[in-house]
């Protein structure tokens, strides 16, 4: 049984960050090649909350609480730590959006805005075709993403994962490191409060080769598929064997929060029977699993083909999660 899929360009990742770009409604900051952080500037009310907490913290430092304080004042000191935590936690949940191969900015913006409008910040994570064709590079990229999530402004934030097509493969590279080093990354896995999979590529090596052909150069689909199958055979220990290991990690994922799957029965890159088997296996593990299925749709374009059903299913899923209720302005 095979797995998930690919992405457009070979992004070299480095430690440099660009200056933030301000639009009318959000700020975009490139964290490194292939990873962009979108966040909404703080509102005036949020600024006032932060200022209030800073003032309270200063007052508490200069005027220590004593047992002689009245019960009324003492009751205020009990809620102070929570106020401080709320203001200092970078409050908004963070959506990790693992995009599909060849995702264009306009198409990605529709998903980004879905979550920005619901009170979340968005970390867009793109992959390279080489991360898939040579999995060890994909593992290196996965480790880089994990390191970014452990640094400000992402430290300690509640996370939601949305992976489309190859995005499922890239997210699995993170899961692999978490599975290898559970003591180091257990806290991060527990921060993921939900995960969404759109057009996950599952089935056999043939499904993966088909995905390469349809996505890279559709006019040469047959040639690319044949070449990919030959490549998988020639470099089996560096490709197919590692894909199989990734599948096992995904089946036994260290992330056990609620999951949502979007897929269609006519998707040549996905075996519905294999996907149903995966979802049943997760349910047996105690994972809450929901799904939205269409008889006919387009790979990685369900939002465009079925917008009302897609958004209503997403909203119902978000409402069921355990992090603070996001805004719903759509």
UniProtKB/TrEMBL annotation:
Pfam families referenced in this protein's UniProt entry, alphabetically: DUF829
Coiled-coil regions listed: none
InterPro entries: AB_hydrolase_fold, DUF829_TMEM53
Superkingdom per UniProt: Eukaryota
GO molecular function: serine hydrolase activity
Protein name: Uncharacterized protein
Source species: Crenichthys baileyi
Lineage, uppermost ranks: Eukaryota, Metazoa, Chordata, Craniata, Vertebrata
